[in-house]
Amino acid sequence: QVQLVESGGGEVRTGGSLRLSCVVSESPFSLLAWRWFRQAPGKQREFIASINENRETKYADSVKGRFAVSRDSAKNTIYLQLNSLNHEDTAVYYCNEFTRLRDYWGQGTQVTVSS
User: What pLDDT, on the 0 to 100 scale, is given for residue 85?
Assistant: First the structure.
């Protein structure tokens, strides 16, 4: 049973930084990538970043140059470094394990950017 647990969210001022973590219980053979999404109030959930087992990364245009996704295989943990934050980055951030069979989701962690 795959379980993902996010942490590291909180409140930060504009221009500040946060580092989110996602601990993954297991990864099946059908694994394609680990991904980060976010959802702001009244908006659709949007893709933010992904990383596969070869450490190839992809980013949404809205966060390129500001966010960085990485992983620590020994700790079964996926990270998302958030830099140069602004109010539009305020959202619940979700960790996702993308496989050929289905997606697994964490409970989300709140990121709030204040002035």
Answer: 98
